[in-house]
Amino acid sequence: MDSYPRSEEDFKLWVLLEHTADAMARARQKELRQCGLTNSRSAVLYSVKHIGPKPTPAEVSRWLFREPHTISALLDRMEGEGLVKKVNDLERKNQIRISMTDKGQRAYQTSLKRESIQKIVSCLSEEQREQLRTCLRLLRQNAMKELGR
Q1: pLDDT (tens digit per residue) in 37-51
Q2: Can you give the pTM of this predicted structure?
């Protein structure tokens, strides 16, 4: 059996997944623009809130699956905008911790309004959502194996 047709179909599936993710990200960006955030800034605020008390930039980087230098530059900009604060770890002086400022907390709360995502995903039944969740987790797991993680 020739593997080319399967390879071509797999590639088309990947393209469809990319197009879907891009379209959803653009819809979300349009919504976030109203509260002065970008998808990236919203994701950082979300991760800072949910990783645990005062995460490190490295933890944020791993959680968001982004390169450390990318997150570091973003955190610098966000600190300049007054959304987050970088503080030295009291126990490990060479380590930085991230916390949200009051302004960041307000932006985070505003970003919790996710109508664009709800509207888009609403076309799926609960069963379809669970199937999609299962498939996406399997794909992510296999991709991480491919990356050696």
Answers
A1: 999 999 999 999 999
A2: 0.84
CA distance 71 to 132: 29
Q: How many alpha carbons fall within 13 Å on the CB side of residue 67? A: 3
Residue 97 in contact with residue 51, Cβ under 8 Å?
no
Q: How open is the CA angle 119-124-130, to the nearest 5 degrees?
A: 120
Report all structural domains of the chain as residue ranges with CATH numbers, in order of start.
Answer: 38-113 (1.10.10.10)
CA distance 136 to 126: 15
Residue range 58-102, pLDDT digits in tens = 999 999 999 999 999 999 999 999 999 999 877 777 789 999 999
For 132, what's the count of Cα atoms within 13 Å in the CB-facing half-sphere?
A: 10
**The pair of three-digit structure tokens given for residue 112, joined into one six-digit string:** 């919790």
The token duo for 125 is 């039944």
